[in-house]
């Protein structure tokens, strides 16, 4: 059976959104549009019917792959492999990474991806705490983001990930409900973003020098959204953050694999990304 592969456009998004809804994914149609705004996506079609999607988001020497979705009626036909190969083979990049579900891991291993870290997804309605535990790091303060902070946020993101994510940071600055910055002696050393996503709100990224600083940023955001549904995706090794999330009533609901094809992304111990932007972006 022959299928066509075309660029995914905004006109395709209602059907793309319907596919993810059928699979139980939380993405809103706006979340799909954000991916189109940040990268490139393809549509797999049977005649004129959308039956599959995949997206690639360039990030300097790397690119992330996300939203690889196949209509339920067309699964088990190797179409996921077709989409990923199309994304990789039509790009000059050689370093790729993605977040794989348990069901998707075998496919990505066959395509040359290897596991490099696990990511835990936490979510729930935020439990109000009185008083909110602070544990403020010494000589640090929190301020709300101002537009002239954007260059510092871009620099911290690049330092933490060793990738060029300037476009992603610009998008975060435009779309986040709230961004808070951590300052030491008036210099920005970390930040965290809160924005609408899926079933409610999402925290990410969280960038800081230490895990206790990341917890401080997360507590500040969670304290302001009591009773609202919040999701956050964190690498599994950050137990202090996991304990903080549990204190606010968030529960671990998923455990997925971050996988790489090419060079493994470097973790900077002096400036670390403690929470993903999204699973599709990393």
Automatic annotation (TrEMBL):
Record keyword Membrane present: no
UniProt domain N-acetyltransferase: residue ranges: 3-130
CDD domains: NAT_SF (cd04301)
Any Pfam family the entry gives: Acetyltransf_18
Signal peptide: none
Main EC class the enzyme belongs to: transferase
EC number, as in UniProt: 2.3.1.-
InterPro entries registered for this protein in UniProt: Acyl/Acetyltrans_Enzymes (IPR052729), Acyl_CoA_acyltransferase (IPR016181), GNAT_dom (IPR000182), YitH/HolE_GNAT (IPR041496)
Keywords on record: Acyltransferase, Transferase
SUPFAM superfamilies: Acyl-CoA N-acyltransferases (Nat) (SSF55729)
Sample GO molecular function, one term: acyltransferase activity
Domain of life: Bacteria
Protein name per UniProt: GNAT family N-acetyltransferase
Organism expressing this protein natively: Vibrio olivae
């Amino acid at each position: 059976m022959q299928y066509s592969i075309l660029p995914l456009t905004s006109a395709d998004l209602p059907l793309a959104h319907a596919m993810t809804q059928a699979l139980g994914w939380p993405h809103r149609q706006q979340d799909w549009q954000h991916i189109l705004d940040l990268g490139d996506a393809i549509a797999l079609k049977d005649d004129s019917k959308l039956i599959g999607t995949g997206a690639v988001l360039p990030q300097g020497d790397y690119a992330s792959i996300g939203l690889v979705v196949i209509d339920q009626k067309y699964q088990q036909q190797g179409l996921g492999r077709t989409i990923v190969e199309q994304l990789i083979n039509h790009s000059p990049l050689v370093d790729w990474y993605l977040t794989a579900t348990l069901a998707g891991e075998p496919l990505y291993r066959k395509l040359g991806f290897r596991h490099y870290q696990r990511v835990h997804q936490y979510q729930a309605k935020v439990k109000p705490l009185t008083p909110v535990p602070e544990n403020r790091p010494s000589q640090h303060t929190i301020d709300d983001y101002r537009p002239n902070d954007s260059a510092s946020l871009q620099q911290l993101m690049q330092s933490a990930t060793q990738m060029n994510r300037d476009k992603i940071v610009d998008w975060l600055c435009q779309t986040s409900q709230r961004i808070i910055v951590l300052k030491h002696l008036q210099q920005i050393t970390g930040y965290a973003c809160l924005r609408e996503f899926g079933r409610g709100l999402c925290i990410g990224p969280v960038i800081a020098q230490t895990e206790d600083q990341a917890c401080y940023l997360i507590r500040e955001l969670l304290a302001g959204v009591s009773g609202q549904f919040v999701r956050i995706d964190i690498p599994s090794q950050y137990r202090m953050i996991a304990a903080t999330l549990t204190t606010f009533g968030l529960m671990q609901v998923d455990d997925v694999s971050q996988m790489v094809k090419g060079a493994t992304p470097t973790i900077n111990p002096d400036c670390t990304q403690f929470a993903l932007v999204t699973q599709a972006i990393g």
